[in-house]
Amino acid sequence: MGKTKVKKMLFILSKATIDSVYAAFIMANGARMEGIDADIFFTFFGLEAIQKKKLAHLKQPTVGNPAMHMPTLLGGLPGMEALATKMMLKEMEKLDMPPVGEFLEILSDSGCGLYACKLAVDMFHLEEKDLIDDIDGVLTIGDFYNQADVDGTQIVFI
Fold it and tell me: Which residue has the higher pLDDT, 97 or 26?
């Protein structure tokens, strides 16, 4: 049996925590660098990553995140989320990772499609003017799945 090369990556981003956003952006950017088509579908709280007023204020949660390796009680103390966010962004900066807004521009310029989920946009009472200018459209999930019409397409939920 021959292997089918990955030809297209579709990422579904459902939360706008720093770790989730950068994971999706890095994987989509890596796909584009390898010549693989890539789209990101922002749904539910993932929409915050493409909202003009929110994308520069994303957080790194400490409660309910086992990878933080701290007791829930400690993670819930005032200031812990802000500290974790600051530390995470500092480490990202050391690796020359661009800020979220700049990364979105890089992705758009590379040909990565950036799409908002219509259901979530309606649920949160958003309008296209609330979203970044580089958005390629507001799609239903069916419209997004129709973009998976190429052999070798993979869908990743983050």
Answer: 26
* 13 strand-pairing partners: 42
| 3-class DSSP string for 3-62 | CCCCCEEEEEECCCCHHHHHHHHHHHHHHHHCCCEEEEEECHHHHHHHECCCHHHCCCCC
Residue 145 confidence (pLDDT): 92
pLDDT digits (tens, 9 = 90+) for 40-79: 999 999 999 999 999 888 887 665 555 555 555 455 556 6
Structural domains of the chain, with CATH: 8-157 (3.40.1260.10)
Report the alpha-carbon distance of residue 131 to residue 157 in Å, rounded: 21
Instruction: Give the number of other CB atoms < 10 A from CB of residue 66.
Output: 7
Lookup: tokens for 132: 């970044």
> 117 has which bridge partners?
139
Q: Using an 8 Å Cβ cutoff, are 118 and 139 in contact?
A: yes
Crossing angle for the helix pair 80-94 and 18-33, to the nearest 10 degrees: 20
